């Protein structure tokens, strides 16, 4: 998107449309699979000619359904953090009373809804079609609530569209053989185990991401404090947060006591984030926060910027086409070149220029990237590149989005 977008368009990673988002996230084959799946779903919901318009009343609510629904609602309220936080802020500070009121309300609605006749098959077909048309202008299917309701409507529509499924002749479903039941039971346990392991691994990586984000925030506050943009109370809070985060790192690795505390905390969290990002599936959020910590660390300790070179070069090897990593390493080489002398300056300048050129190719309308290229070309004596890029900035500046103009 950055390479082909119109100059005036803003930066975004969201296509805000389900089919395009699938293509952006997973490629064109995934988009085609998604469209085919939608078409097959709509086809399965088309009623057959023998379907009678009046489907009769819905099955009555049994005590088991009522009790199960009540317990499920209570579990949702107290197990889901968002709902629990919401009912805790309701008037009266009585979350249990509000939760019971919610359960009673939903059960009452379900009781009265059970008296209504079932919808026609065409109503379910139209509802699914309307949702699939809507996601051509939105990405609602990224919401679990929308997907859950849509799946329920699809299942109901498939039952209503094919009367043979509800035929009285099939009053007792056929029972699978014990061997087949055992295979399905084992398969279900394996799936449950895989999901549980995935949740545990994700929670561990989520903890690393949360700690890294806290560190990035602390470093940002420290930079603001050094620039005099925080008052005494704010600087004290930033220092306290820094010391708390550092104490955890020292407990985990005593070698952190031998270097500058800021370097110890920054490198420790960058290393953890980069290592966690390499686990399947690769997580770009961890890369993003690692690069952000590196930016702050280089600003706080410019004389120690070189310690980040192996980390950033490793990130480039793992993410060779990633704009964020290319930009970060080009600016890193530029910093080192500006502080180096003679031959080292030229070598680092050429490395910075090569990466800055790649960054410009990936995002030609983000003019700060061209500024980095100009600075690197100036160190290598490439005046042709300097002249060309300055002309391009002058040409594009009135056209590009305000966020992409030179700083």
Give the SSE map.
Layout: H1 18-26, H2 28-45, H3 63-79, H4 81-88, H5 95-113, H6 121-134, H7 144-161, H8 178-226, H9 232-252, H10 261-277, H11 284-300, H12 309-318, H13 323-339, H14 342-362, H15 367-380, H16 383-396
Helix pairs in contact: 1-2, 3-4, 3-5, 6-7, 8-9, 8-10, 8-11, 9-10, 10-11, 11-13, 12-13, 13-14, 13-15, 14-15, 15-16
Describe the structure.
This protein is mainly α. Helices cover 70% and strands 0% of the residues. It has helices spanning 18-26, 28-45, 63-79, 81-88, 95-113, 121-134, 144-161, 178-226, 232-252, 261-277, 284-300, 309-318, 323-339, 342-362, 367-380, 383-396. Helix 11 (284-300) packs parallel to helix 13.
Query: In DSSP terms, counting alpha (H) and pi (I) runs of 4 or more, how many helices?
Result: 16
The whole-angstrom Rg is 29 Å
Largest sheet: none
State the total count of DSSP E strands.
0
Give a brief outline of the structure.
Helices cover 70% and strands 0% of the residues. The protein has 16 helices and no strands.
Give keywords:
407 residues; mainly alpha; 70% helix
């Amino acid at each position: 998107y950055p390479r082909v977008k119109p100059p005036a368009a803003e930066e975004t990673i969201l296509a805000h449309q389900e089919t395009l988002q699938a293509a952006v996230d997973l490629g064109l084959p995934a988009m085609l699979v998604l469209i085919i799946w939608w078409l097959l779903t709509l086809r399965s919901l088309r009623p057959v000619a023998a379907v009678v318009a009046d489907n009769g009343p819905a099955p009555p609510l049994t005590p088991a359904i009522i009790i199960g629904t009540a317990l499920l609602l209570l579990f949702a309220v107290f197990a889901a953090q968002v709902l629990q936080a919401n009912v805790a802020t309701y008037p009266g500070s009585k979350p249990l009373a509000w939760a019971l009121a919610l359960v009673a309300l939903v059960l009452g609605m379900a009781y009265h809804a059970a008296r209504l006749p079932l919808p026609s098959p065409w109503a379910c077909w139209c509802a699914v079609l309307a949702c699939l048309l809507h996601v051509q202008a939105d990405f609602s299917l990224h919401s679990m609530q929308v997907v859950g309701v849509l799946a329920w409507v699809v299942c109901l529509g498939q039952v209503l569209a094919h009367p043979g499924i509800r035929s009285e002749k099939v009053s007792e479903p056929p029972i699978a053989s014990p061997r087949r039941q055992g295979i399905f039971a084992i398969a279900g346990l394996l799936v449950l185990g895989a999901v549980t392991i995935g949740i545990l691994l994700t929670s561990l990586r989520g903890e690393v991401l949360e700690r890294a984000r806290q560190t990035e925030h602390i470093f940002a506050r420290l930079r603001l404090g050094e620039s005099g943009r925080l008052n005494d109370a704010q600087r004290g809070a930033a220092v306290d947060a820094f010391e708390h985060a550092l104490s955890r790192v020292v407990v985990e690795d005593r070698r952190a006591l031998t270097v500058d505390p800021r370097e110890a905390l920054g490198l420790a969290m960058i290393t953890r984030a980069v290592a966690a990002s390499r686990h399947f599936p690769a997580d770009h959020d961890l890369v993003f926060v690692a690069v952000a910590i590196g930016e702050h660390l280089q600003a706080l300790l410019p004389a120690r910027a070189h310690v980040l070179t192996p980390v950033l070069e490793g990130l480039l090897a793992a993410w060779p086409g990633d704009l964020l990593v290319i930009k970060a390493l080009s600016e890193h080489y530029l910093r080192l070149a500006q502080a180096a002398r003679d031959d080292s300056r030229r070598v680092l300048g050429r490395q910075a220029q090569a990466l800055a050129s790649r960054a410009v190719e990936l995002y030609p309308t983000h003019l700060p990237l061209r500024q980095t290229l100009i600075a690197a070309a100036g160190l290598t004596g490439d005046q042709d590149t300097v002249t060309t890029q300055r002309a391009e900035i002058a040409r594009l500046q009135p056209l590009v989005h305000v966020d992409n103009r030179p700083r």
